[in-house]
């Protein structure tokens, strides 16, 4: 059920005040909303990986071409999963950049 004009104005005002009072919280909420799409993409990539594995193992003895296609589906879905997971981590404020910074600091301390 859509909001009426008055309710939409109230919601917009609450959003504006939230952004003014606590911009970090507003960013966190916005990132959480966007991460739902990433979760869906990651689940789909896992399903594709499983389908590719089943096709590969089921057809390995009959046709190496079909088994190869299943393997390519597996590789493609694994790449998509890794890309989506990395994008989700970077959007959440962590990810590879932060991890590399920590490793570099640790290397400098120990070396």
Set out the fold topology.
Layout: H1 5-21, H2 23-59, H3 64-91, H4 96-110
State the distance separating the first and last CA atoms.
Answer: 61 Å
β-strand number: 0
Tell me the count of domains. Answer: 1
Show unreliable segments. Answer: none
- Count the helices. How many? 4
What structural class is derived from the secondary structure elements?
mainly alpha
Main β sheet profile = none
**What's the overall average pLDDT, rounded?**
78
Q: Helical amount among residues, as a percent range? A: over 70%
CA-based shape: flat
What fraction of residues sit in β-strands? under 5%
Which value, in Å, is the CA radius of gyration?
Answer: 22 Å
Order of helices and strands: HHHH
Characterization of this structure:
This protein has helices spanning 5-21, 23-59, 64-91, 96-110. With 111 residues, the protein is mainly alpha-helical. The chain has one domain (5-110).
Brief sketch in words of this structure:
With 111 residues, the chain is mainly alpha-helical. The chain has one domain.
Which properties best describe this structure?
87% helix, mainly alpha, 111 residues, single chain
């Amino acid at each position: 059920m859509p909001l009426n004009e008055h309710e939409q104005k109230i919601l917009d005002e609450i959003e504006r005040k939230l952004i003014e009072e606590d911009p970090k919280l507003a960013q966190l909420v916005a990132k959480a909303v966007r991460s739902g799409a990433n979760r869906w993409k990651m689940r789909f990539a896992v399903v594709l990986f499983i389908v590719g594995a089943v096709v590969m193992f089921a057809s390995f003895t009959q046709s190496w071409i079909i088994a190869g296609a299943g393997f390519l589906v597996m590789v493609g879905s694994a790449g998509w999963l890794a890309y989506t997971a990395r994008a989700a981590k970077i959007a959440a404020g962590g990810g590879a950049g932060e991890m590399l910074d920590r490793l570099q600091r640790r290397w400098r301390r120990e070396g």
